[in-house]
Design brief:
The protein is of the alpha/beta class. It has eight helices and 15 strands. The strands form five sheets. Strands 2-1-15 form a three-stranded mixed beta sheet, covered by helices on one side. A three-stranded mixed beta sheet has the order 3-4-5, covered by helices on one side. The chain has a three-stranded mixed beta sheet with strand order 6-7-8, with helices on both faces. It is globular and about 45 Å long. It starts with 12 loop residues before the first helix and ends in an 11-residue tail after the last strand. The protein binds arginine. The site of arginine (ARG) has 16 residues, from loops.
Length: 301
């Protein structure tokens, strides 16, 4: 197993320890589902699911995902907190590129108390926190996906993140931000329907975007690099995938999508996450990419 960056996170750790340098190589941030559950409704997946997520099964599914990812990546952990059932979805902690991090400004008031905790975590790891305008909602890597092959950041807006968020990200990180409008409430975060993969591949569900955004995607990603998925795969959150070292970890995958991913040179790894689907999240939502101190993305402009 790859090294674990901070094994048993304690809330008092940051008071005592000086800030550490940001991780030197790419890692993933996760948060154990000790207090996970569907306790309120802030997306359509959560409707009729209050109290329905089985915690032991969720824990087993999360542990299975963690174990699979840990074989190929460093994993860092942020301490789970009672009363914050969605904190497991660390994709929404913020966006970290190089030594800088932006902390999310949650649209959902239920998740706003997570902001301080994620901010503390980024600070304790040595990231410098970029200021973010109070009135612009932004839900982190749920709505901002780095495309390493192109050196750009794809941004989703319309449900959780504000239309001006991409402009602010572009300024803060010095990377071109491409704004995509999300129009289907079931695909309320960009990472629920869009997944840049290495080598310039792009797996996504076109119907989640307005026409102009579909055109923008097609203008940037050539047809031979696009893996457009159908509604069935989209609804099983196939696009909510984490890629590590050529492996694509995802909740579920049709035979057709499986063979297209294999043809593109990836190895799909199914890791069922039914309990987290009840909250509207799957593999990608449960992780945050930490690019490390030396940014793996080269700004273009
Ligand atoms: N229940 C959570 C919410 O609605 C799920 C978040 C899923 N995260 C994601 N990156 N798509 O905020």
């Amino acid at each position: 197993e790859a090294a674990v960056l901070n094994d048993a996170p304690r809330s008092d750790a940051r008071a005592a320890a000086p800030p550490r340098p940001a991780p030197a190589r790419r890692a993933l941030l996760m948060c154990a589902p000790d207090y996970f559950g569907v306790d309120y409704i802030i997306n359509p997946w959560m409707e009729n699911q209050i109290g329905q997520a089985a915690l032991p099964r969720a824990q087993a599914q999360w542990e299975n995902l963690r174990g699979k990812l840990a074989a190929h990546s460093d994993i860092a952990f942020v301490a789970p907190t009672p009363g914050l059932p969605d904190m497991v979805f660390t994709a929404n902690a913020g966006l970290a590129i190089g030594e800088k991090a932006v902390v999310s400004r949650f649209h959902a008031k239920e998740r706003r108390p997570e902001e301080r905790l994620f901010c503390d975590w980024f600070e304790a790891q040595g990231y410098s926190i970029a200021p973010w305008p109070e009135n612009v909602p932004f839900e982190g890597a749920g709505d901002a996906l780095l495309d390493h092959a192109r050196g750009i950041v794809w941004c989703g807006y319309g449900w959780r993140s504000g239309e001006t968020a991409p402009k602010h990200l572009q300024k803060i990180f010095g990377l071109r931000a491409v704004a995509l409008k999300l129009v289907d409430p079931r695909f309320y975060h960009l990472d629920t329907c869009f997944c840049p993969l290495s080598g310039g591949w792009l797996m996504y569900y076109p119907a989640a975007f307005d026409i102009a955004s579909r055109e923008a995607i097609r203008a940037i990603a050539p047809v031979e690099k696009r893996i457009e998925v159908g509604e069935k795969d989209a609804l099983s959150f196939a696009c909510n995938a984490v890629e590590v070292a050529g492996r694509v970890f995802l909740n579920d995958c049709s035979d057709d999508l499986r063979s297209r991913l294999i043809d593109a040179g990836f190895m799909p790894v199914v890791t069922p996450l039914s309990e987290f689907m009840k909250a509207g999240g799957a593999a990608k939502c449960l992780t945050l990419q930490l690019p490390g101190a030396a940014s793996t993305v080269m700004p273009r402009e």
